[in-house]
Predict the structure.
Amino acid sequence: MGLFDFVKGIGKKNTAAAEPQVAPVAAEPTAQEVANKLLGHIKSLGLPISGLSVSYNATTDLATVVGQVQNQADREKIILAVGNIDHVAQVDDQLTVATPEPESKFYTVKSGDNLSKISKEFYGDANKYNKIFEANKPLLKNADDIFPGQVLRIPE
């Protein structure tokens, strides 16, 4: 548990694709609207979590995530799912893990990065990019789905 920093404003937009846009929305979403969208985003990933709740402080751009997961990988995926959204600058991790395991390393994607390049840096082998891709599913839909400022899990 702890506080994780992210780059605010650079993450994916947290909007529901199915919502029709009648007119451009000028106002910033309320803290409750952001929290509800973050909650929906986590649920859409299909990760097993119980007692999930999400709150958001618009003044500090801090999202707090509470709940229980079975393993460290799911905990980290939930933290990254929340932190890689454009309104979030920090995630307060209040998740508990049923079976504690060592934490993964985290890497912030830079301009010009791809999974092969990151794999070469961490594993010494560009061909192990799939290990990073698999570790970040369902957050990544394909290996080219990364962007500068995004934070990824790098497993041992």
User: Anything to note?
Assistant: The helical segments are 31-44, 72-83, 115-123, 129-135. Residues 2-99 form a domain with the Histidine-containing Protein; Chain: A; fold (CATH 3.30.1340.30). The chain has four helices and six strands.
